[in-house]
Each structure stands twice: as C-alpha cells, then as structure tokens.
Specification:
The protein is an alpha/beta fold. The chain has 11 helices and 12 strands. Bound molecules: ligand PBG and zinc ion.
Length: 335
C-alpha cells in the first residue's frame, strides 16, 4: 500500500472505511453479494409453427420461438452457464377455458419434452396459468364477468400434472387463485408426482410492469384487469400472508414479482421463510433498461448488473430475468 501524505492540520480520530475500497482486489475481497450465471433462470416464449424467431417489439432481444429453435437456444444457455429456463406457451388456438394449457400435446408440453431429451441437465420450470390459452385473456374461468376461483382450480391442477408428465422439474403457478398450491400438490401426488416441486408466485402484484410480457405471450385481457386476484401495490403484510398460506399448502419455493419495485417484499420474504426465494425481474423492468440504453441515456451493462445485484442483496436466491443471457455474457467477459 502506498504511504499517505501527512495532514497539514491536526485531525480528529475517525474510522477509515475507504481502506477496503482502494483497488479492485480489495473491493472484491470486501464484496458481500456476488452474481453468477448460476443464479439465473431464463424465460422462453414458445409458439406453434416452424422456423419462427419473432422479436417482441417491446422487449428487444427477446423472441417468440418455435420448437425447432429451442435446441439452439438451449445450446446458448449451456455455453453461458445458465442452469434453468421458465417456459411460457402461446397456442395457435384459444378457447373459453384455456384447454390448450393442459393438452398432452400442447405447445408447452412439447417444448418440455424436447428440452428434457436434448438437455437432461437443464432445469425446466413451467408457468402454470390459463391466460395465454383463454380467448378472453384471463387467468381462469370467467363467471359473471370475473375469474371464478373454484372453477379455475381443477384446470390449474390438470395443467400442472400435464407439465409434470411432460418432464418439467418444477411447476410454477402464476394465477393467484386461492387454494391453487393445495390443489396442485394434491393432483401431483395423486398422479404419482410426489417429487415434483411447486414454486408458487406467492407474492404477485397487479402491476403495470407486465405490459411487454402480455405482448410477448399474447395474454392481454380483452376486458377488465387482474386486480381481483393479483395483489395491490400498497401491501406488504398481505404479501407475507400470501407467502405463509402458500407455504402451508405445500410450496417448495416462492417467487416475488415484480422485483425491482418490491425489494422490500423480497427482503421480508427472505427473513420469513427458509425455502428458495426467487425474484422475477419482469418484462417492464427489462423494457425500461433497454429503452433507456437505446436512447444512450444509461450504461446498460453497469445498470443491469447493479439492478441484478440489488435483487440478490435484498434476499433473492435466484433471479428470473430476460437479461440472464447478457448478464452471463458480461460476467464471462469480466472473468
Ligand atoms: C401469467 C404471467 C404473467 C407474467 C408471468 N406469468 C403476466 C400476468 O400476470 O399478466 C408476467 C411476466 C413479466 O411481465 O415478465 N399469469
Ligand atoms: Zn395468468
């Protein structure tokens, strides 16, 4: 270390926190939270058809992919050291009850099988919800203009079992119906999938940050919104209640979503439960960074890494992110 200069004036006694920030090696030594490619789960939107790689306009760099593009996509993730994917399906036909969600030969079920065969080591998580599959874009069965909780539950259970049958490692219900973890657990167990974990979107807020996703997944509701089931942005105690209920019903891991505006919820969740806590860095969070970067207003690499770090620091064990590939690439470049 270089010798310091002598002060021209007599100094009081004080602590020197700058000691540990002097150079890269010392900063690395003192760093409390680190990112690695292994922290990430990468969302993929799968569509029917062939040779399709259609960019989502509000999510530059993200694509709707047909089944034949999946192997190449998985190769890329492997090379980057990203251990898992979260699959969303976009069927060619939608109906009132979203029957494509639980069809044995549905788009997600076929995607799961394909990735399972191609990359046995890849963690395959499936989103369990009806909104991509219903003609009205809602997360379940509509009765008198609202999503009916109890009629939706059996469909979610069937969907989860169909994903497990296809070979999913984890099912992730995102619908926010009451009782869904309980009914999914029961259905999985009855079908012999006692070992399939449930990662519930336990604290999922009704958020404007999902806008770009709904373009990507073609799941914008044709009327109304999701506020009768997703949570109100002002509430954190209610999030704790949701988490506790899902834990009691048998959740093996939980998701807090969105992430960035809800870091307090992530922190509180981390302190409350001992299962994996996963942050969902949602589509709008990705789109905001991309837009500002395209305008040249921010440094995308630095801002993204800082954002991901904030989620881990807040308590996330893992992060679901559209930025996963770029982050993994940046981490590789640095090493
Ligand atoms: C389906 C679902 C949504 C997201 C994940 N699963 C959309 C919604 O609830 O409207 C959002 C993901 C994102 O914005 O990146 N229920
Ligand atoms: Zn939904």
């Amino acid at each position: 270390m270089t010798r310091s200069t002598t002060s021209p004036v007599p100094l009081p006694v004080f602590q020197r926190t700058r000691r540990l920030r002097q150079n890269t090696a010392l900063r690395a030594f003192a760093r409390e939270t680190n990112l690695s490619a292994g922290d990430f789960i990468y969302p993929i939107f799968v569509v029917e058809g062939e040779g399709i790689r259609k960019e989502i306009s509000s999510m530059p760099g993200q694509f709707q992919l047909s089944l034949d593009s999946l192997a190449g996509e998985v190769d890329g993730l492997r090379d980057l050291g990203i251990p898992g994917v979260l699959l969303f399906g976009i069927p060619s036909e939608k109906d009132e009850i979203g029957s494509g969600a639980f069809a044995a030969d549905g788009i997600v079920q076929r995607a799961v099988k394909l990735i399972r065969d191609y990359a046995p080591e890849m963690l395959i998580v499936t989103d369990v919800c009806a909104c991509e599959y219903t003609s009205h874009g809602h997360c379940g069965i509509i009765v008198s203009g609202v999503v009916d909780n109890d009629q939706t539950l059996p469909l979610l259970a069937r969907t989860a079992v169909s994903h497990a049958e296809a070979g999913a490692d984890i099912v992730a219900p995102s619908d926010m119906m009451d009782g869904r973890v309980a009914i999914i657990r029961q259905a999985l167990d009855d079908a012999g999938f006692v070992n399939t974990p449930i990662m519930s979107y336990a604290a999922k807020y009704a958020s404007a940050y999902y806008g770009p996703f709904r373009e990507a997944a073609e799941s914008t509701p044709t009327f109304g919104d999701r506020r009768t089931h997703q949570m109100d942005a002002g509430n954190i105690r209610e999030a704790m209640r949701e988490i506790e209920i899902d834990m009691a019903e048998g959740a093996d891991a939980i998701i807090v979503k969105p992430a960035l505006s809800y870091l307090d919820v992530l922190r509180a969740a981390r302190e409350r439960v001992d299962v994996p806590v996963v942050a969902y860095n949602v589509s709008g969070e990705y789109a905001m960074i991309k837009a500002a970067a395209q305008l040249g207003w921010i440094d995308e690499r630095r801002l993204t890494l800082e954002t991901m770090l904030s989620m881990k620091r807040a308590g996330a064990d893992r992060i679901i992110s559209y930025h996963a590939r770029e982050v993994a690439q940046w981490l590789q470049d640095k090493a």
